[in-house]
Design goal:
Number of helices: 0
Number of strands: 11
Order of helices and strands: EEEEEEEEEEE
Radius of gyration: 13 Å
Largest sheet: 7 strands, mixed
Distance between the termini: 40 Å
Shape: globular
Helix content: under 10%
Strand content: over 45%
């Protein structure tokens, strides 16, 4: 059974930092690309970042230079380190993996950036 278990969301002040984790199981984690997607209140899904199986990365312009996606293939975990957060980053953040038989999503911890 494919599982993506996220942790690390919460409340942070503007300018602060937060790290999200996505622990994966049930598939060959080290062989697939993974992504982070977010959904702000009242808005649609927004792709945030992607990391290939070998560690190559891509970012949305809105987070480039502030967010860092990484992965630990030994521990089947993906991370999103977010810095210089602003209120526009407030959203539910989902980790996502597209597999041959379907796409899977984490539970989406909320991140709230507010003073």
């Amino acid at each position: 059974e494919v599982q993506l278990v996220e942790s690390g969301g919460g409340l942070v002040q503007p300018g602060g930092s937060l790290r999200l984790s996505c622990a994966a199981s049930g598939f060959a984690f080290g062989s697939v690309a993974m992504t982070w997607v977010r959904q702000a209140p009242g808005k649609g899904l927004e792709w945030v970042a992607r990391i290939t199986s070998r560690g190559g990365t891509n970012y949305a312009d809105s987070v480039k230079g502030r967010f860092t996606i990484s992965r630990d293939n030994t521990h089947n975990t993906m991370y999103l380190h977010m810095s210089t957060l602003n209120p526009e980053d407030t959203a539910v953040y989902y980790c996502n993996v597209p597999l041959a038989w379907g796409a899977y999503w984490g539970q989406g911890p909320p991140v709230t950036v507010s003073s």
